[in-house]
Amino acid sequence: MEIDDTRLADGPHREILLRHRPNQDGTACSGCGFAYAEISPLCPHVADALREMAAIDTRPQKQKSSLGGYSTSRLRVMAREHVGKGRCRRCGFVYSGRVRLCPTARRIAAELESRSKAPVTQPRADQGLCAGKGSAWNVTGHEAAPWKRAMAACSICPLLTQCEAELESRLAAGAKISEQIIAGRLFTVRGAEVTAPNVDEFADRRGRPKKKRTRPTRRTAAQAPAVPTVGRQLALFEGAAA
Fold it and tell me: Residue 146's pLDDT band (boundaries 50, 70, 90)?
């Protein structure tokens, strides 16, 4: 498998990829002599370097991509393409005992999870279930199902105790939590908490159209009907003034 070194960042991983290149026949690594096979197209050094680089590139803060523009059905088709035995048949990523999905497949899974179209999974051992999928924990729209899903995920998250402590500290300091779900607790735009039994009722209230308030019209002095005085009434009849 050819490695385009013009697209690689500087650092130790780049040096590894430059040293461990295919030989002239393309049958073995020129750096360590590893013999390629159908399920092992890269030597262990190159496979480890690419795996580390992929892990760096797929951290939550760097996951901004164009996947949000694809439909759910298209994402599912792409997910079925990024699979394989030993390596991804679509992008060539080499799997390991702990990494069974290529970077693209992981990003697709995160996008589907954020749309509530796939089970919520833990991206890494030291991260919460919401890592990289924060949009699913935002209170938007007026559907209760995605909010309940996020709250349920928080209840089984291994970092729940840590999130609860951080949330209580923020609330005690006077912070306002607006339209978010944190530690399994839902907060409105004004920072009020909605308990789990009241989520459906809260969703119904958000979905109701707002009533327009009609203000009563005020009559001005010019619009009020003129009330004639007694003297003017008498002046309408002949001889009234006599």
Answer: confident
Predicted model pTM: 0.47
**What is d(CA 38, CA 90) in angstroms, rounded to the nearest whole number?**
14
Element (H, E) at 144: helix 144-155
Given a contact cutoff of 8 angstroms between Cβ atoms, the answer to whether 116 and 122 are in contact is: no
Residues 181, 147: contact at Cβ < 8 Å? yes
- Helix, strand, or coil (residue 3): coil
Other C-beta atoms within 10 Å of 73: how many?
9
CA 87 to chain CA centroid, Å, is 28
What contacts 24+ positions apart, CB below 8 Å, involve 187-194? 187/139, 188/139, 189/139
Note the pLDDT tens digit of each residue in 203-222: 999 988 877 666 766 665 55
* pLDDT over 90 (residue 48): no
C-alpha 49/C-alpha 29 separation (Å) is: 14
- Who contacts 190 (Cβ-Cβ below 8 Å, separation ≥6)? 178
CA 56 – CA 36 distance, rounded (Å): 26
Report pLDDT digits (tens) over 155-199.
888 899 999 999 999 999 999 999 999 999 999 999 999 999 999
